[in-house]
Amino acid sequence: MTEHVQPAPGPRDQRPLLIGAMTLLALVMVFLAPMALDYYTVNILIRACLYAVAALTVDMLWGYTGILTFAQGTFFGIGAYAVGLVFTHYGFSPTTAVLAFLGALVAAALVAAIVGWFAFWHGASPLYAGVVTLVLPIIVVQLLYSGGTLTGSSSGLVGFEAFDLEIETWFYIAGTLAVLTTATLTIVVRSDVGRVLVAIRENETRCSYLGINAPRIKIVLFTAMAMVAAMAGYVFTCFGMVVAPEMTGLVFGTELIIYTALGGRGTLVGPLLGTIGIDGISSYLSGELPYLWKLIVGTVFVAVIILLPRGLIPTLGSLLGGFRRRETARVSGLRLRRVEPKGFASQSGAMALAISGLDRRYGSLKVLSGVELTVGSGELLSVVGPNGAGKTTLMRCISDGHERTAGHVAINGNGIGRLSPHRIVELGLGRSFQNTSLFETLTVADCLRLARTRWERPHLFTRSREICLPEAALRVVEATGLDAMLDHETRNLSHGMKRALELSMVIALEPSVLLLDEPTAGLTKPERMMVGSILVDLCRSESVSVVIIEHDLDFVREISSRVVVLHQGAVLIDGTVDEVVSSELVHAVYAGKGAAGQDERAPA
């Protein structure tokens, strides 16, 4: 087992030490602040710190994972009502305090899991998730209104006994909770798991085809953030000893989104400081300008969204020259390592890919009709045909169980049914796309690590420096020069480099069936020949079955063991390279395309 180390690695990553130092400094400031602030300001800051914790959960969901949610205020209110209900109806004691705390976490988790199951199913759009979380606070408020004496209806619950602590102590609790929540989430977003969250935000479809169960990750994150928000609501009500339906409502949930956007989405520090600053200023303005302060805050919000879309904190940091919003900050000392394959060829002995009676219709338009196709272990099949023949649609039907209208598809003897792409990847499938599908803000190293998620569980609190790849994927990386660009963001790569990166990612999955849609587009001739030799070697040494759509007919002749010609959604001919080349029927089909089909002319 050999290693390939990135040339001239930089110094060790200092971010963990910096996070620790900043956290310690923030905690010192929390414990010194009550000595310098008046009673009213301390009171306001307690509330602002707890609101900030809820805003941090919005940033984790919206800023880092791309889930716009209006429900975090509701989960804050669930934590608050857990305190009010238990202390009002069962009295206050250490036992009931613990029960209320556990009840807050469990109730928030259950509600979040149910809502997440409805909001994040495979294929659900971000808009759909936003609508579901928009409805939740409306439903909860109506339930509270109809609760009568149990929930206090529209008046809420007041006058119950709770913890008897000095206001300075409450400030220490709220401030410490805000600081530690920020520090913990900062570590998470800079870890391997944080990279997965950003990948879901950038390109959830590609994540699914890397075997990443994005809906499950969203539900788990949504549930975890609901529990954090409920914890903040618990502390808030223990301090204020008042709970009202408005604490679970849509207005509060929207305010948390505003705080996050104004502070700086996807930064954590921005929403923290933005919430504390805006809520603190609003508290003073509401006394001085009782009828205008909300208008002022709303106007500022609109102005910031238009003029400073990144938010106040990132923009201010950029002006000072010391801040750059980077979810995927570069890590020095990156190392490529060859590993023994864990996947590739199926051991079941079944046909690698079997398709029968495959149809795909879009309304009255029939794109595929009665496709019959088998691919044996270690076979390299090229699929060719005129534009519009249904080649890419065939790829979609093989890799996503929801795509086909009728027919049967089996991978290694396992029918795909209506399975989602990430489940089909587990059966041994890997796929590249006709248009390169990557993660624009992630680095080359991050993309390669993501491709190994199926085999290497991401770490929650650390970021790996080592990239373990099978020999074939490593050959693509080294031959195309990607090994010298590991810390470059993919959006800065050339088109050819992006194609090479996507190919190496798909091979890194170690699939037994490999679907490649024009994998050499944009590559030079030597690079195309290199890719061809790697694919042939995969078929021979690992018994991988490759199905490739390709317009470079010289390339097809060089590597293919079999060729299938699609025409008008059906298999026109299925045979060896020589049989297809010599077929008069194939020549007639291509000749019928005329000048528009020059790139897909019949093999000569």
Automatic annotation (TrEMBL):
GO terms for molecular function: ATP binding; ATP hydrolysis activity; branched-chain amino acid transmembrane transporter activity. Keywords: ATP-binding, Cell membrane, Hydrolase, Membrane, Nucleotide-binding, Transmembrane, Transmembrane helix, Transport. The keyword Transport applies. It is a multi-pass membrane protein. Signal peptide: none annotated. Residues 353-593 form the ABC transporter domain. This is Vitamin B12 import ATP-binding protein BtuD. It comes from Starkeya nomas. The gene is btuD_14.
